[in-house]
Design a protein that fits this description.
With 231 residues, this protein is an alpha/beta fold. Helices cover 29% and strands 19% of the residues.
């Protein structure tokens, strides 16, 4: 299936004291969505944005929010956020059922997210095989492949991790889920994004490596990134 490749800009890399101004520039240059990392200091060691921050962003822009929940209780977090049509709610595939120890069943959370008109996805860490998502594939719109160890902006890409993109695309297509889009997150430069677009990724989280580059304006980096993923 051919997707329209999308740029999801990491808000964690923005100028947070002037985020409204940044958002205007991002909108003007045609980005597709805003990526927000929500961390609880438990699933990952960092602590970031909360419901009020997301609400303030939603009041500022109609761009979809690509919300990545690096938290131990995504169901609890769902009840604290107002999702809009086109937003993405991404939980982590590594979470397990507290009673059985098996990978968590996300059917109910997916139903709730879809009921709000939003999309539901799962993220997998670099060391996690994409096959862990198999029980939940019928409920997914996206799978996010973490190319770095999550928790901090500017982390180094794991060596050889881009091969996971083509492997994941082949796996999903082979299982009959060619509708599920692959998002890539972590140290995604324009050059790397172009390579991963050819491998089957279609959502590209841009941060310091691809969008907020030192010595370059957003009006330069975004068109260059767009050109790289247009295949």
């Amino acid at each position: 299936m051919k997707y329209r490749n999308k740029i999801s800009v990491s808000v964690m890399c923005s100028d947070l004291l002037n985020l409204g101004k940044d958002i205007r520039i991002l909108e003007k240059n045609g980005v597709d969505m805003l990526h927000v990392d929500i961390m609880d200091a438990h699933f990952v060691p960092n602590l970031t944005f909360g419901p009020d921050f997301i609400k303030a962003m939603q009041a500022e822009t109609t761009l979809p929010i690509d919300a990545h929940f690096m938290v131990e209780d995504p169901e609890l977090m769902f009840g604290k956020y107002t999702l809009r049509k086109g937003d993405i709610f991404t939980a982590h595939a590594e979470l397990t059922d507290k009673l059985t120890g098996k990978p968590r069943d996300y059917e109910k959370l997916s139903e709730n997210v879809h009921g709000s008109g939003s999309l539901f996805g799962l993220a997998v860490n670099p060391e996690t095989p994409v096959e862990i998502t198999e029980p939940n594939l019928p409920y997914l719109d996206t799978i996010t492949l973490m190319l770095v160890h999550p928790g901090f902006a500017g982390a180094k890409m794991v060596d050889g991790i881009m091969d996971k993109v083509s492997a994941a695309r082949a796996y999903l297509d082979g299982k009959g889920f060619d509708n599920i889009e692959i998002s890539v997150d972590g140290s995604v430069s324009a050059e790397r994004a172009g390579r991963m677009a050819a491998m089957g990724a279609s959502i590209f989280v841009g941060g310091t490596a691809g969008i907020y580059r030192k010595g370059m304006e957003l009006s330069e980096t975004i068109p260059a990134f767009r050109k790289a993923i247009t295949i």
